[in-house]
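Posting this for the archive.
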Amino acid sequence: MNRVGVIDYGVGNLRSVANALRHVGAEPVVSDDADTLMACERIVFPGVGAFAYGKEALCAKQLHNVVLDAVACEKPLLAICVGMQLMFEHSSEFGEHEGLGVIPGRIEKFGACAADAPPLRLPNVGWLPIGPSQEAEGLAGKLLEDVTADSRFYFVHSYYAQSASPHAVATSQYGGQTFAAAVGKGSMFATQFHPEKSGPDGLKMLKKFVN
């Protein structure tokens, strides 16, 4: 059974992630110990809540090094929601904050698409389709290969990564704004949506990651 490390830095729905991994045949190892996590074949970097708090909590336990080391040694890494946002260089959520800098670009807040448009309801909560934005390679290509126009994924977020990011491999839309639903770089794949909460489509993606 494949052992998948789940980074426990006090931010994220660890139980849902662990249960979903177990459902697709993996052995989840929820830990805040760097050596334990790096001994696993794959790593999941979950996250919910505010960007700055997540970065502070991650660094307080020195677990940012697990993320960076996994990327550097090409260990398969799946980052989810705020985990994905933390992979970027900067965020404007409640001030200016630095991310981990794995992916170039900024995280911005959703806004009305036109001056006369009604304010968007935030956070964006619900099921949305995603579509490929470029030819995905590496881990991203494998995890996205079964996504169809009928696939739906579960989102909960008020901030987003721009779809123009050179590493955006899938996009979605909310309130007229196209945003990066997923980014990929080598053995790293990150999603703004929650695959562990996305029903059959999300579980199919997790199973591909595990295998």
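The two ends are 10 Å apart (CA to CA). The mean pLDDT is 93.
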